[in-house]
Every structure is written in structure tokens, then in C-alpha cells.
Design a protein that fits this description.
7 helices, five-stranded mixed β-sheet, L,D-transpeptidase catalytic domain-like
Length: 373
């Protein structure tokens, strides 16, 4: 995450209609693009859509996809251990975004949607997730179903009620959850089925330049071109975007709720990315970022290799455009998706399946940890 108008921009080349945006500390590393599809094993039956108690469904703002980042009106309880005192910095220091937010782009169909492929292979991604993603959450079936209903509620509120036959990534930014889920359904009449879940870290309020992660439905489009981490260390010996070659998923300028001073909203660059694997990844599970979504490095590699959110990127590559961010070694799934969804369930108690970092991990929080995205 970076705040508009600040000079701490990450270094990395992003080409959008001839305009070059420079980002600090990171270099773009072009690779060749090619496409492929996954095998098609037997389908797993999605869980029932029967209503279950135990988890509130969040009330999402009825905004369009062009401004999906309005923060949830539900308040979050913030443990004192997660936040430091708010800075008295003047709101006049916050400037407007140097870019006009992009209008929603017409989503291009993925391979499965174009070819009307059977959805059995999409559910097989569960086994791949379990095998390749090292940090996972064992979510009970009842909560899987409840989060599936919450996902549908968020999609309906943003005009995507019939979305199907593609993966969707969802994050619960609730202070007592801090989890990411991958969902899929074959048809719009089906219930959403969970593919896998992992701990994350979202925006921690209470410190200057820290935003509360925006809620909404965010489209992943090449106009906000992703880039890759260089893996360099900052002055505190921390790799803010993680190890070299980790992909930074860029969702463009969004209105973020300031977590310092008198609050209010300002433009922030909303991203999903890995973090320092040794020093900060052990802290996933609590709010700790400056507004972006931090994910485990193995999950970052999983998303990148299988193109879980790359439907629009692959469509451009098929048209002959140079999508340098896509690796030549990738195996993009036929059910690639378009959207990251962020909700806030406002859960008052932390569920047993989503534990926060233990005392040993917290005790090893490095000096300067609050200075990275």
C-alpha cells in the first residue's frame, strides 16, 4: 500500500497506455506469456446453502464496481496489542490521488466459460491448494457455508449476483478473523464452495499512514499492472514485499479509511502481496499492514502459477498483447477469476480455526515493522 502524494513509492515498471509509473525498491522482471489449462477430475458436490447460525453476514455498501472500496459501517474491536497511539499528523498532509480511478472493465470470459468446460477440474484445486500452500486454515463446514453466503451477499451488492464458473478470492478483514478464502461455484444457482483458506494481515489502525483495508469487490485488470518484488532489504533489514520475484497484485487507487488522526478517507494504492517470510509472515493472522492484504509466500506462488485471478490478463495475452508479468512456466487454470472481495464480518470472538500468531512470534516483531506495507 502507498498513500497518494507520498514519496515512498515502490520501484518497479508498470506500463499503462504509455504512462510509466515508478515504484520504490522493486524492479519489473518481464517473462514470456503462454497459456494452459488444468486436468478435469471428478466434481465434488458443493455444500448445502441452508442457513446456519454462528457468523453474521456483513452488510455491504451498495456501491458500484467503480467505487467498491467504501469501508464497512460495522465497527471493529481493536486489541490494544495490535495498535500504537495515533499520530497527530494534520489531514492537510494527505493529497489527492495522482490518477483518476479506472471505471469497471468488461470482464473477459475465462477458458472454461468460453469453451463451456465441465467444472470438475475446478474442484480438484482443493487438493492442489492443500499440497502447495503451506499456511492453511481448517475451516469447519458450517463456517465455509456461512462465508459462501457472505460472498454472495457482497457480489449481489456490487452487481455480480450471477457470477459463476470462476474462482473468487475473498478476505475477511475482521480483527478477530484475518483470513483469506478461495471459492468456486459452477452455476449461479449453486452455493459457493470453499477451495482453501489461509491467514492474512490487513490494515492496522492507530499509526500514521496506516489505512483500514477497504471493503468491496475489486476487479483485477492489467490497467493497474502488477509487478514483482526485488527482494531488497530496507534500513531495518525487512523485505516489505517479500522474497525476490513475489508478485504484487495491484488493484489501483481506492478510497481508504485513515486509521490515524481524525479519521476520514484518502486515496491509497490497494495491493495484495507477500511479506518478509522470516520476520513478518509469522505475524499473519492479526491486523498489521498499512492497508494492503499481506498473504503467505506459498499462497502468492500458488496464485501466480495457476493464474487464479488472471482471467483478464490471460485474455489480453491471447489477443497478442505483451503481459510481461505472466511467467512462461505458469499453468493458468481454465477457471481463472477476476475479483478480490473484502468483507468485514465483525466477529466478536476469534474462531478456533483462525488463531492469531503465538507469543513467541509476537515477541520477535522486528524494529521498523510498521514502516512496510
Amino acid at each position: 500500500m502507498r498513500q497518494a502524494g507520498k514519496n515512498k513509492t515502490p520501484l518497479g515498471a508498470k506500463m499503462i497506455g504509455g504512462v510509466v509509473v515508478l515504484t520504490l525498491g522493486l524492479n519489473a522482471m518481464p517473462v514470456l506469456a503462454q497459456s494452459s489449462s488444468a486436468k478435469l477430475p471428478p466434481i465434488l458436490t458443493p455444500p448445502s446453502a441452508q442457513a446456519l447460525p454462528g457468523m453474521p453476514v456483513p452488510a455491504q455498501p451498495a456501491s458500484s464496481a467503480s467505487s467498491p472500496s467504501a469501508a464497512s459501517s460495522a465497527s471493529e474491536a481493536m486489541p490494544a496489542s495490535e495498535a500504537s497511539p495515533a499520530s497527530a499528523a494534520s489531514e492537510s498532509e494527505v493529497t489527492e490521488a495522482p490518477e483518476v480511478p479506472l471505471p469497471p472493465e468488461e470482464p473477459e470470459p475465462n477458458l472454461a466459460q468460453r469453451m463451456d468446460l465441465p467444472s470438475s477440474g475446478a474442484f480438484d484445486m482443493r487438493q492442489t491448494y492443500a499440497k502447495e500452500v503451506t499456511r492453511r486454515l481448517n475451516v469447519p463446514l458450517a463456517d465455509q457455508q456461512a462465508y459462501g453466503r457472505a460472498l454472495q451477499h457482497a457480489l449481489e451488492a456490487n452487481g455480480h449476483a450471477d457470477l459463476a464458473n470462476e474462482y473468487v478470492v475473498m478476505v475477511d478483514r475482521s480483527a478477530n478473523v484475518q483470513a483469506l478464502f478461495v471459492y468456486f461455484r459452477a452455476k449461479s444457482a449453486d452455493a459457493w464452495s470453499m477451495i482453501g483458506a489461509s491467514p492474512v494481515a490487513t490494515g492496522r489502525p492507530g499509526t500514521y499512514d496506516h489505512f483500514i483495508t477497504p471493503t468491496g469487490v475489486f476487479q483485477h485488470v492489467p490497467e493497474n499492472m502488477d509487478f514483482r518484488a526485488e527482494g531488497t532489504l530496507n534500513e531495518y533489514k525487512i523485505r516489505g514485499y517479500g522474497a525476490r520475484d513475489m508478485r504484487i497484485y495491484d488493484f489501483g487507487w481506492q478510497d481508504g479509511e485513515r486509521g490515524w488522526g481524525k479519521g476520514g478517507k484518502s486515496p491509497m494504492r490497494f495491493q495484495m502481496h507477500a511479506t518478509d517470510p522470516e520476520k513478518l509472515e509469522p505475524l499473519l493472522g492479526i491486523r498489521h499492514s498499512k492497508g494492503c492484504v499481506r498473504i503467505p509466500s506459498s499462497l502468492n506462488t500458488f496464485f501466480d502459477h495457476y493464474g487464479v485471478l488472471d482471467a483478464q490478463y490471460e485474455a489480453r495475452a491471447t489477443e497478442g498483447q505483451s503481459m510481461w508479468i505472466l511467467k512462461s512456466t505458469r499453468r493458468t487454470t481454465a477457471w481463472a477469476g477476476h475479483y478480490l472481495v473484502v468483507i468485514d464480518t465483525g466477529r466478536e470472538k476469534r474462531p478456533a480455526w483462525s488463531p492469531g500468531p503465538n507469543a513467541a512470534a509476537r515477541a520477535k516483531t522486528p524494529v521498523g515493522a510498521e514502516t512496510v506495507d
